Structures are given as structure tokens and as C-alpha cells.
Amino acid sequence: MKASVFYGKDDIRFEEVDKPEIGTNELLIQMKTCGLCGTDIHKVLEESVPSGSVLGHEYAGEVIAVGEEVSDFALGDRVTGGIHVPCFTCEQCSRGHYTLCPEFKKTNIDPGGFAEYVRIPEEHVKDLLYKIPEGMSYAEASLTEPVACCIHGQKAVDIHAGDSVLVMGAGPIGLIHSQLLKNKLVKEVVVTDVSDHRLNNAYDFGADATINTAEHDLETYLQEQNHPGFNIVIIAAGVSALLSQAMNVLKRGGTVVCFSPFGVKPNVEIDASMFFRDEKSIVGTYSVSPYEFEEAILAIQQGVIDSEALITHQMPLSDLGEAIALTQDKTENVLKIVLENK
């Protein structure tokens, strides 16, 4: 079979790899679509994964082989799911911290989603695989994992109808957050970014206002607009400096959600007195548990997520390198790229 294999940031090869064989409790799917995630892009550009890796985890496909002990899935089923499964029994799982389970990162699909065929291990078949509803395209279904991640992130904080929420970052993740927030009847969603391309899109995804922070100092601009601040701030861009900004524009009693990883210069200075004086909070959220996928499928199916507008590019699986390069072109209006196995 063919797969797009990472060898270096400028060396992604569409080449022959071994087709996986399945066990009695496993499935083999033909990958139909796989979304290009920001984490895939960072892993490639930062060369933080081993040479020879096959990335991709936002997959949707068709079951083409079924292990003899599998009873819940059949040939021809259209499915989607995630890549990591918790054990459900350890201390972290018993406290609801499924993504912190020691077994979580030890589980994975084989290989990644940027391949023609993918083996779905027993744990995934049992707890992390979902049938795609009739009428939903494979491209739409590939959004299930990122939407589920955003649902998981928003569960980390109490969001009330009437809240004012700031989303920092107008990429695909920020825009998914915006749409989910508007569905919760929050009073206001403000989106910030440094790209006019992305900010212009934000109004179509639930934003009531946008601020280009390359042109305006966020705190000064809000003061000039007599804006009282935000109940919730969701950081949907991997820029550590945003954390101190988020705390400074947060209302008393508010919470910052750190959704994106801070990979570069993660140390920031924060006025620690705000935790006591203003009862401000910071919560972190990582990945997604199995419990958000059905919610994500419903959000896509019921139009809470405008998948047609979010997916701006569909490209062949062989064009992974070109797709990543396209995301770095600031002159292009790129939101979500989905790779197709045709």
C-alpha cells in the first residue's frame, strides 16, 4: 500500500509501505479522508517525530476486513474515531482524567491516517470507533476528532449562557470553538489573531467581533472600547505569551483554558496575586476522551459545525508535503485541509 511518510520537513515521500495485518479482534479500514491537524504540521516543521513516521489521526474510512471475534462492525461500515484509548480503571481514569492515563499514549492506530489502509486495534474497536451517520460525507466525518477535542476542552470550564468569551486564535480549532460557544448561547464571542485572512472568516463561524493583535495591543484596545473583559478565555494558538495577556483581560472570577500546546519559550510571567485577589483560574486541557466523539458527530450532523465552510481544501493523499506548505502561505485563505485517498 502507499502512505505519505515523513523523513524530514522538506522530505515527505508517497511510497510503498507494508499493509497491516489484523488480529481476531481488529479491523482494517480503507482510509477515505484524513484531516491535516496543526499538531501534524508542527511535528513535520519541527522534525519532532522519528524519520519514517506516518502521521495523521483525523481519519474516516470504510471497513474492508473484520477480525473473526468482532461483532459490532461489518464489511462496508463507514467509521471514524480517535488514536488514543485510556484503560478506564487507573487512578487518573477513576478521576475522569482519561487523557492522563498511563496507557493513553501507548495505544495508537497502525500506521497513522496518512496511509491507504489502517489497522484498528482491539482497544479502539471496543471503545473508540464510531459509525458515520448516513448522509454525512467522509470529509465531514474527518472533522469528528478535532470537534471532539474542542468539546473536551470546553468541558474543562463552566460556560454559562450570557458569558463573554475570548478565543485567541482564528485557525480551524479557534473557529470550531467559536461555533460550539455560540451554540451554548454565550452573549459574546471575540476572536483574536494576527491574520486578516483568518479574522475575516471568523464572522462566519460565530464571532461577534475580531481584533487583529498585530495591529492593536489587546489590553489597550479593550480599554479604549470600554470593554469590561471576559468570563472565559480559550487559548487556541500555541503561543505562550498569550497566557499573560489572557489573564490580564479576564474578569474577576474568570477562567483561562489552555487548549493549545506551548512548545516554544513556554515560560511566562503572571501576576500571581490575581489568583487570590481576583479568584482567576487557569485550566489545561489535552487531547480528547472517548466520551466526546458522539457529541462531535451530532454537532457536525446537526449543523452546529459548518463543515462545508471550514474545509477549504481537499487534496490527494500524495500531496501531504504540498498541503503543509500551503498552510504556511500567508497569502492563501487556508482553513481546514483534508487529504483524500482516491
Strand segment tally: 15
> In the CATH scheme, what's the topology name of the largest domain?
Quinone Oxidoreductase, Chain A, domain 1
Helix content: 25-40%
Can you summarize the main beta sheet? Answer: 7 strands, mixed
- The average pLDDT value, as a whole number, equals 96
By secondary-structure content and strand pairing, the structural class works out as alpha/beta
How far do the termini sit from each other?
Answer: 13 Å
Characterization of this structure:
With 342 residues, this protein is α/β, with parallel strands linked by helices. The chain has two domains: 2-148 and 288-340, Quinone Oxidoreductase, Chain A, domain 1 (Alpha-Beta Complex); 157-284, 3-Layer(aba) Sandwich (Rossmann fold). 27% of the residues lie in helices and 25% in strands. The protein contains 13 helices and 15 strands. It has helices spanning 38-45, 91-94, 122-127, 138-141, 144-154, 172-183, 196-202, 218-224, 242-248, 273-277, 293-301, 307-310, 320-327, and strands at 2-8, 11-16, 27-35, 58-66, 78-81, 117-120, 129-131, 164-168, 188-193, 209-212, 230-235, 250-258, 281-284, 311-316, 336-340. Strands 3, 4, 5, 6, 7, 14 and 15 form a seven-stranded mixed beta sheet that branches. Strands 10-9-8-11-12-13 form a six-stranded parallel beta sheet, with helices on both faces. Strands 1-2 form a two-stranded antiparallel sheet. Strand 1 (2-8) and strand 2 (11-16) form a beta hairpin. It is globular and about 65 Å long.
